[in-house]
Write a structure and sequence with these properties.
With about 130 residues, the protein is α+β, with helices and mostly antiparallel strands. Helix content is about 60%, strand content about 20%. The strands form two sheets. It has a three-stranded antiparallel β-sheet with strand order 2-1-3, covered by helices on one side. The radius of gyration is 20 Å and the shape is elongated. About 15% of the residues are buried.
Length: about 130
C-alpha cells in the first residue's frame, strides 16, 4: 500500500503493508491535523479503507487507529487460540493432576509474553 497524506501542512508518503502504514500514520499523526491526499493499494485494501473512512466520518486518524487495532486484535485472538490448544494437550495423571510437557510449557510462556506485547500495542494505538 502507498498512502500520501498531509500532516500539519507537510506532505508525507507511507509505503508498506496495510498494517504497517496504518500504524505509522497513527504514531506520527497523533494530535495533529491529518489529511488524505491519495492512496494506491490492491482492490480489497482500497475497498476496506474507503468503507472504514465512511464509517468514521472521513477522519483518517480515527480510521487508521481502528484498522491498526483491528490487525492486532486478529493477532491477539490467534495467540489466545494457540495457547488454548497447547493447554488442551496436557497430560493427565491418575490422581487428577495436570502435568505439562516442559517444551509445551515453554511455548505457552513465550506465547503469553507475545500476547502481553500485543495487548500493550493495542493500548498505545488508541487515539
Amino acid at each position: 500500500m502507498e498512502l500520501w497524506v498531509k500532516i500539519d501542512g507537510e506532505k508525507r508518503k507511507y509505503q508498506g503493508s496495510f498494517k504497517a502504514v496504518m500504524e505509522k500514520l497513527v504514531e506520527e499523526g497523533k494530535g495533529k491535523k491529518v489529511e488524505l491526499l491519495s492512496f494506491h493499494a490492491p482492490q480489497k485494501e482500497r475497498r476496506r479503507l474507503k468503507r472504514e473512512l465512511r464509517a468514521h466520518g472521513k477522519d483518517l486518524l480515527k480510521t487508521a487507529s481502528y484498522m491498526a487495532r483491528w490487525f492486532y486484535q486478529i493477532e491477539e485472538r490467534r495467540l489466545r487460540r494457540r495457547i488454548k490448544e497447547l493447554k488442551k494437550k496436557a497430560k493427565r495423571l491418575s490422581k487428577g493432576e495436570l502435568v505439562y510437557d516442559p517444551k509445551k510449557l515453554e511455548q505457552i510462556k513465550q506465547l503469553e509474553q507475545s500476547l502481553e506485547r500485543v495487548r500493550e500495542r493495542i493500548k498505545q494505538l488508541v487515539v
